[in-house]
Amino acid sequence: MATIDTDVNDIDATLAALADPTRRKVIDLLREGPRPAGELAQAVQMSAPALSRHLRVLRASGLVRAEAGGADARLRLYTLRQQPFTALQSWLDQVQAFWAEQLGSFKEHVERTR
Fold first, then answer.
1. 33, 35, 52, 105 - which has most CB atoms within 10 Å?
2. Residue 95: which H helix or E strand, with range?
3. What pLDDT, in 10s, does the model give residues 10-65?
4. What are the residue boundaries of the HTH arsR-type domain, all occurrences included (predicted)?
5. Exposed, middle or buried, 94 (CB in 10 Å: 0-12/13-18/19+)?
6. C-alpha pair distances (Å), 46 with each of 39, 79, 110
7. SS3 64
8. Does domain 11-113 have CATH number 3.40.50.2000?
9. By the 8 A CB rule, do 55 and 78 touch?
10. Dist CA 82 CA 30 (whole Å)
């Protein structure tokens, strides 16, 4: 039961983080590769402190991670993490399977009762 609750909480955090268009834009930018926060802020036309709040939400949800970026210890590169997206896709696949089964049953019923 704890695993189901944990999975549901993780999916809730993922969906909550992705509900914001700025955070989705950051996710799209990170699909192209790791980027420093300053470059992300410039790309989304937002101040560094404002973007920092969005990055904090993305880190807390596990969607991104920040790593030291090379020679400059102050530079942090943001990258996507696969696990939350895999968990979300798994849940969506289960919902899709439910609807496919429901529609299949409805189709059988209609064909039987013609």
1. 35
2. helix 82-112
3. 899 999 999 999 999 999 999 999 999 999 999 999 999 999 999 999 999 999 99
4. 4-99
5. exposed
6. 10, 19, 54
7. strand
8. no
9. yes
10. 12
Three-state DSSP class for residue 4: helix
3-state DSSP of 12-53: HHHHHHHCCHHHHHHHHHHCCCCEEHHHHHHHCCCCHHHHHH
- Take residue 77 and report the two structure tokens written for it: 């590169």
User: Would you put residue 18 in left (φ > 0), alpha (ψ -120 to 50) or beta?
Assistant: alpha
Query: What element of type H or E holds 73?
Result: strand 72-80
Tokens of 4: 């189901």
Number of H helices, E strands in the chain: 5, 3
Q: How far apart are CA 30 and CA 58, in angstroms?
A: 12
Q: Which two tokens stand for residue 103?
A: 């529609």
Q: For the chain, how many residues are written?
A: 114
Q: Is 114 exposed, middle or buried (0-12, 13-18, 19+ CB in 10 A)?
A: exposed
The CB density around residue 101, as the number of other CB atoms within 10 Å, is 10
